[in-house]
Amino acid sequence: MSTTVEPLPVGPLMAAALNTSVVVAALVAAWVLIHSRGVTWWARGRLVVALLLMAVANWIADVAGGGMATAALAGVLSMESALVLCVMAQSLLRRSMLAHEREVQELHETLAEARVAIRHERELLHEVGSTVAGITSATNLMGADQSLPLDRRQRLQHLVDLELARLERLMMCRAEAVVTTTGPVRAEAAGVDLDEIVERLVTSHRLRGLTVHWTPRGLRCAADPDDFAQVINILLENARRHGGGQVELDSLDDDDWVVVTCSDHGPGVDEAVRARIFESGVRASASPGQGLGLGIARRLVEQCGGDLVLADAVSPGATFVARLPKKEMSRVAAHGA
Questions:
Q1: Calpha distance 200→162 (Å, rounded)
Q2: Which of 337, 281, 300 lies closest to 122, judged by CA?
Q3: Which of the 8 DSSP states describes residue 311?
Q4: Edge-to-edge, what's the strand order for the sheet holding 211-214?
Q5: Is 70 exceeded by the pLDDT of residue 164?
Q6: Which one-letter DSSP state was computed for residue 3?
Q7: Are 323 and 259 in contact (CB under 8 A)?
Q8: Relative to the CA of 58, which of 17, 27, 93, 238 has its CA 20 to 30 Å away?
Q9: Membrane-spanning regions, if any (predicted)?
Q10: What is the CATH number of domain 113-325?
């Protein structure tokens, strides 16, 4: 036998009390939200408005009496409350997406800066290593061969002094780049005596076993002396590693330009990498290098308004041609960009 539980009768007075309790609870909740520090004031304000609208709509529907007008007003207030919540949720989602996009952009910028810094460090180590090798060779020769004529010893000592000074400028340039965060800005080129710089670099590479055929021409060009020295050093180092132990280095006058050619007797540049030989990190599979030098050399030549190209292969070996202006042209600050 089943029993049926009759619902407790709710009179108008009790219904009013219940609805008043709901309103009071809504007001208390609103007060708590207003004083909450875990939510932004923007979100707290909208939550309070939505909560109060829902409470008033509920009170009007149950207490203020029946009728279509009352029901319509309660419905409008409920929809307003829902609309406030929807707009708030949309705004919060949009803000979250914008914040995420900013974080992603900042990460990309940080990664780009890190890549540039790593490239600068690798390029610096590349040039420092080659410079130190030349200094070491000259120092070892002076220490091992006590029978060197005085003039020969003085020339080697002068070579060491000049390369040490260039090494110090390289390190100072790097320190300046770290301080400014934008890279060192070199002074405008005052002009370079090609013979003076090429002679000491040719001597350095001859000490390390490279046969260099070179004849002074008495030419000058508009370039930073250290940049020009680095370009010639890279070309000779590239020829020493890949060129069969011999290289012809020459310069000629071509109207407003000085043209420097460096030709070796090696196997030449692999066709697979020929078109990308000046890109950073590009090298043949059998190359002992890192693929950095030629890209650095081209950038340095371009900074003084010139260009560096790989000549068409017409004989065994590879020929690199650098054109440098005789007079100051458009010059780009050495930012490593």
A1: 8
A2: 281
A3: P
A4: 211-214, 246-254, 257-264, 319-325, 307-310
A5: yes
A6: -
A7: yes
A8: 93
A9: 12-34, 41-61
A10: 3.30.565.10
In angstroms, the Cα distances linking 133 to 68, 93, 136, 242 are 96, 59, 5, 17
Q: What are 14-40's pLDDT values in tens digits? A: 656 666 676 677 777 777 767 776 667
Alpha-carbon span 275 to 135, nearest angstrom: 34
pLDDT tens for 55-102 read: 777 777 766 555 677 778 778 888 888 888 888 888 878 888 888 899
Q: How far apart are CA 35 and CA 41, in angstroms?
A: 9
Q: Is residue 138 scored above 60 in pLDDT? A: yes
Phi, psi (degrees; rounded to nearest 5) at 187:
-70, 160
By the 8 A CB rule, do 181 and 174 touch?
A: no
In whole angstroms, what is the distance from residue 249 CA to residue 236 CA?
9
Residue 337 is given by DSSP the state -
CB count in 10 Å sphere of residue 50? 20
- Both tokens of 174, joined, read 């790097």
Q: Rounded to the nearest 5°, which phi and psi values hold at 86? A: -65, -45
Please give the full DSSP string across 254-307, using - where no structure is assigned: ETTEEEEEEEE-SS---HHHHTTTTSTT---TT-SS-S-HHHHHHHHHHHTT-E
For the chain, give the percent of residues with pLDDT over 70: 77
| pLDDT > 70? residue 334 | no
What letter would DSSP give residue 319? E
Whether 171 and 184 have beta carbons less than 8 Å apart is answered as: no
Rounded Cα–Cα distance for residues 119 and 127 (Å): 12
Q: How many CB atoms lie within 10 A of CB 254?
A: 10
Q: Which residues contact 295 (CB under 8 A, 6 or more apart)?
A: 278, 279, 280, 282
How many other CB atoms sit within 10 Å of the CB of residue 160?
19
Alpha helices in 145-247 (DSSP H): 150-180, 194-207, 225-242
The number of angstroms, rounded, from the C-alpha of 119 to the middle of its chain's C-alpha atoms is: 8
Q: 0.85 cut: is pTM over it? A: no
The two three-digit tokens of residue 210, written as one number:
């490279």
- The token duo for 222 is 């508009």
